Amino acid sequence: ISDGIVEINRVVREPGNRSKIAVSSNDSNIDPVGACVGQRGSRVRMVVDELSGERIDIVKYSDDMGEFVKNVLSPSKVSDVFINEEEKIAFVIVPDDQVSLAIGKDGHNAKLAARMTNWKIDIKSETQWAEEKMKELEEKKEEEEKAKVKTKKKIKKRKEKKVKRCKAILRSGKRCTNLAKPDSNYCGLPAHKKLDTKKEN
Predict the structure, then answer these.
(1) What single string gives the DSSP state of each residue in 166-196?
(2) Could you give the CA distance from residue 112 to residue 133 in angstroms, rounded to a whole number?
(3) How far is Cα 56 from Cα 176, in angstroms, rounded to an integer?
(4) Which residue in 27, 94, 20 sits closest to 59, CA to CA?
(5) Could you list the pLDDT tens digit for every one of the 201 residues in the chain?
(6) Under 8 Å CB-to-CB from 8, ≥6 apart: which residues?
(7) The pTM is what?
(8) What is the DSSP string of 98-132?
(9) Phi/psi at 66 (nearest 5 deg)?
(10) Are 79 and 103 in contact (CB under 8 A)?
(11) How many Å separate Cα 58 from the centre of its chain?
């Protein structure tokens, strides 16, 4: 750190509970986290002792928000991260047995992660995420079915409202050009009305 090879990018703290420090390295051959933690945690342990046992998480900084969120939620394991850039929300999926670790005691781990990233972090278990996605798919399918039924009804109404021509055939052999009366296949001409009557008889 003193040589400027390892840089401290961000620090957030809940005094007496936990601190998180994001670090990066200017040298690809140097692991910034390992350099700060020390062999078998020797360096960070000295700081922990000075702070009366306060937990210190040293994580790797990243410009990739998805990757950074994963790192910041250490020591929990993260299965996946879905980013909403517009609303600045990170949906974090963790194994079922890692939920309490990701959130932390009294929510400290999740709160510090949110403060460090300046994003809202929504943590869900793999089971919960799968159930929500299944529900979304079912709701989408239901909406699609409703839309299909609605479209069919509209088409049916259009067909019912469609104006019909009189079906009577004139002496010239051509079909009558008049419009048929409602509930009839023929127009209002007396001769054509009789055709409708004959049909009924």
Answers:
(1) P-PBPTTSPBP-SBPPTT-SS-S-HHHHHHH
(2) 28
(3) 92
(4) 20
(5) 788 889 999 999 988 888 999 999 998 888 899 888 888 878 888 888 888 888 889 999 999 999 999 999 988 999 999 999 999 999 999 999 999 999 998 899 999 999 999 999 999 999 999 998 888 888 888 888 888 888 888 887 777 666 688 888 888 888 888 888 877 888 888 887 777 655 544
(6) 1, 21, 22, 23
(7) 0.64
(8) GHHHHH-GGGHHHHHHHHHHTSEEEEEEHHHHHHH
(9) -60, -45
(10) no
(11) 30
The domain in which residue 123 lies consists of 77-140
What is the DSSP pairing of strand 80-84 with strand 89-94? antiparallel
CATH number of the domain to which 12 belongs: 3.30.300.20
d(CA 35, CA 96): 32
The number of C-alpha atoms within 13 Å of 92 and in the hemisphere containing its C-beta is 30
Q: Return the pLDDT at 59.
A: 93
Query: Which amino acid makes up residue 141?
Result: K
**Number of domains within the chain:** 3
Same domain, 6 and 53: yes
| Contacts with 19 (C-beta within 8 Å, 6 or more apart), sequence order | 11, 12, 13, 51, 54, 55, 56, 57, 112
172 with 123, same domain: the answer is no
> Contacts by 124-127 with C-beta closer than 8 Å and gap 24+?
124/91, 124/92, 124/93, 124/94, 125/93, 125/94, 125/95, 125/96, 125/98, 125/99, 126/79, 126/93, 126/94, 126/95, 126/96, 127/96
